[in-house]
């Protein structure tokens, strides 16, 4: 599956309860050894490895990431609501956003705004430069920026010590 294929055009993969349990465990600790996962789902390691490989091949598992405490690293997160010009397709802005290192992820949404972008920047001045660049694309009629004061993500409160 191409890396930038729209999620709206992808097929849904049929998952059973065991697949869902493995995904839940991997969300909590993507570095968990297969032996540990196998014990948790009461299977031997070989079928667990095959299931994980199948989930990777089918694009359900798209990768494994390191969770970084951005506040400890000194980074700032912000959300930017973007309203597009009437003649702009969301795909036009999406390709442009994919090229920006500061874009963590983005969502096309129904209603107002058209696109919601999550940015990771070094400081407020960096944020201003990025938002100005978005505004200058010629595809945007307006933006609204919200700086994240605190965040919490399910599964990221795992003690790795």
Structure in words:
With 161 residues, the chain is α+β, with helices and mostly antiparallel strands. Helices cover 36% and strands 19% of the residues. The protein has six helices and four strands. It has a four-stranded antiparallel beta sheet. Strand 2 and strand 3 form a beta hairpin. Helix 2 packs across helix 3. The longest helix has 13 residues, at 45-57.
Helix content: 25-40%
Number of helices: 6
As a whole number of angstroms, the C-alpha radius of gyration is 19 Å
The tally of strands reads 4
Average pLDDT confidence is 88
Overall geometry comes to elongated
Query: Which ranges are low-confidence, i.e. pLDDT below 50, for 5 or more consecutive residues?
Result: none
Strand content: 15-25%
Largest sheet: 4 strands, antiparallel
Classify the secondary structure makeup into a structural class. alpha+beta
Distance between the termini: 36 Å
**Helix-strand sequence:** HHHHEHEEHE
Order of strands across the widest beta sheet?
Answer: 2-3-1-4
Annotate the secondary structure layout.
Elements: H1 17-28, H2 34-41, H3 45-57, H4 70-73, E1 76-84, H5 90-98, E2 103-108, E3 115-121, H6 124-135, E4 140-147
Antiparallel strand pairs: 1-3, 1-4, 2-3
Helix pairs in contact: 2-3
Summarize the structure.
This protein is of the alpha+beta class.
Which keywords apply here?
four-stranded antiparallel beta sheet, single chain, elongated, 161 residues
């Amino acid at each position: 599956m191409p890396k930038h294929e729209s999620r709206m055009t992808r097929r849904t993969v049929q998952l059973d309860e065991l697949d869902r349990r493995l995904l839940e465990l991997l969300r909590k600790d993507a570095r968990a050894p297969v032996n540990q996962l196998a014990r948790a789902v009461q299977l031997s390691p070989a079928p667990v490895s095959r299931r994980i490989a199948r989930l990777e091949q089918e694009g359900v598992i798209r990768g494994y990431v390191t969770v970084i405490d951005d506040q400890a690293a000194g980074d700032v997160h912000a959300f930017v609501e973007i309203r597009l010009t009437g003649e702009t397709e969301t795909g036009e802005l999406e390709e442009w956003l994919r090229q920006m290192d500061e874009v963590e992820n983005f969502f096309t949404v129904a209603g107002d705004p058209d696109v919601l972008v999550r940015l990771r920047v070094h400081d407020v001045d960096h944020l201003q430069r990025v938002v100005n660049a978005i505004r200058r694309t010629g595809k945007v009629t307006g933006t609204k920026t919200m700086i994240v004061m605190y965040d919490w993500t399910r599964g990221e409160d795992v003690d790795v010590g």
